[in-house]
Amino acid sequence: DVVEKGEGWNRTRLDEAGFGPTIASAVDAMSRRDGEDYFAFVRRAASNPLALPVKRADLADNIWQARQVGASTVKYEEALRILDDEFPRRQHQP
User: Fold this and answer.
1) How far is the C-alpha of 93 from the C-alpha of 3, rounded, in Å?
2) Band of the pLDDT at 92, cuts 50, 70, 90?
3) Contact (CB, 8 A) for 66 and 73
4) What is the pTM of this model?
5) CB neighbours of residue 93 within 10 Å
6) What per-residue confidence (pLDDT) applies to 94?
7) In whole numbers, what is the pLDDT of the chain averaged over residues?
8) Which of 62, 52, 54, 61 is nearest to 82 (CA)?
9) Mutual angle of helices 38-46 and 74-86, in 10-degree steps
10) How far apart, in whole angstroms, are the C-alpha atoms of residue 75 and residue 59?
11) What's the rounded Cα separation, in Å, for the pair 91 and 94?
12) Other CB atoms closer than 10 Å to residue 51's CB: what's the count?
């Protein structure tokens, strides 16, 4: 959430701060852009192999938090379905 909520943070600043291109790219992928459709954002985040498991965990946490306060989980459950359908979990290959 640093890029979305942290003032002055963007992909360039992550690079300049020494996070390196792999981490900066993953953080950028997980950061929703102004005006971006939520499900387009989910798909974009999932297209980055480092961001994908983080996005899955984030959605699971969002569902848990919503349930704690009696809020709707529909949006997050749909996002998880998108990930499961379009970005299936990779099975470990020995």
Assistant:
1) 34
2) very low
3) yes
4) 0.79
5) 4
6) 44
7) 87
8) 52
9) 40
10) 9
11) 10
12) 20
Largest CA distance in the chain: 44
Structure tokens at 34: 């102004």
Query: CA end-to-end span of the chain, whole Å?
Result: 34
Both tokens of 41, joined, read 């954002």
Instruction: State the sign of the Cα–Cα–Cα–Cα dihedral 17, 18, 23, 28.
Output: positive
Which of these, 85, 63, 83, lies nearest to 73 by C-alpha position?
63
What is the amino acid identity at position 53? P
Contact 64, 77 (CB under 8 A): no
Q: Judge contact between 87 and 46, C-beta under 8 A.
A: yes
What distance in Å separates the CA atoms of residue 6 and residue 32, rounded to the nearest whole number?
13
Match 């848990």 to its residue by tokens: 64
Tokens at residue 82, please? 């998108």
SS3 67: helix
